[in-house]
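Please, structure for the following, as tokens.
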Amino acid sequence: MSDSIKKVVLAYSGGLDTSVILKWLQVTYNCEVVTFTADLGQGEELEPARAKAKLMGIPDEHIYIDDLREEFVRDFVFPMMRANAKYEGDYLLGTSIARPLISKRLIEIAHETGADAVAHGATGKGNDQVRFELSAYALDPDIKVIAPWREWDLNSRTALIAWAEQHQIPVPKDKRGESPFSTDANLLHTSSEGKVLEDPWEETPDYVYSRTVNPEDAPDTPEYIEIGFEKGDGVSLNGKATSPATLLTELNELGRNHGIGRLDLVENRFVGMKSRGMYETPGGTIYAAAHRGIEQITLDRGAAHLKDELMPKYAELIYNGFWFAPEREMLQAAIDHSQASVNGTVRLKLYKGSVSVVGRKSPNSLYSERHVTFEDDAGAYDQKDAEGFIKLNALRLKLLAKQGR
């Protein structure tokens, strides 16, 4: 296989693992390497990745560093949020939803540069290898995918560092000791897992949290905010129009200050094992609550309930890596159709780790105060109609009861 690989596009962070992978690809496949580093709002300076790639012999024209924050939120996070998607009822899919975008750009760069393969640094135990590769093959069925963690024998931090030193790859001092946990971050969330988090009985140490203050230390006074929606997407914060990525960035800061969005979860990985992770999704947690809030008054009951039935399947497809599969696109079309009248404003209360919807208004509101009032409804609803409704629904239950069933 190595003879057939001429050029590889590598998803490159500039860290130790992907730097070792870069050199390993050159040594093992004797091929050109193109590096791609995505700015998904992970909060890290990305220019060092360019310097590191250049240090390892990659020419400027083969180094790609792309700001994908707006595309990430607009074309991936927001469509997912329209579905109110949560995997296994809790997880807002922060890592899962980033992978198809990275894969999409990997394939685009492969086509631009004439590369015949792409490579990633996901391990053979996790979900990300599946997500990267299913997306890649969906976009280019002829692409070759290289997953070094499934091929090499560098199965420990010590072996990785020794190999790096052997091949003159700089090893930062903080990489020589075992990290207490691993992280992945983007504009939507930060995930932490491994090491100190592997025992699901032990509480997550406070030093693991990076995106939120401890809710116990959050302000003693609640903060009220308003999010405006058009066709199911957030378009403003406190009356000020904003872009998707800017909105999520500002919500992240609000969530950080109030300790919102922490989740300790044991989930079922697609590859079969259970894993324990700690997720921080401050802005996404606020946004998800707001979206459900505006749907409460704008969606018909039948449409709202059907969406809730479809959501677990939709969330599972994203978690498992099937963003570009036809079934996800079919569900997306139905979900997007439901959002045509999801317009209006939601008021939320942020307080010590919690976000609560406390108000909602919409020009498309289906809420009728005349029909639900406990006062005189001026003939809007005839309460006598309920008697026939109840009798018809009770008929089968009465027949079953008479049969003793």
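The first helix runs from residue 16 to 29. The chain has a mean pLDDT of 94.
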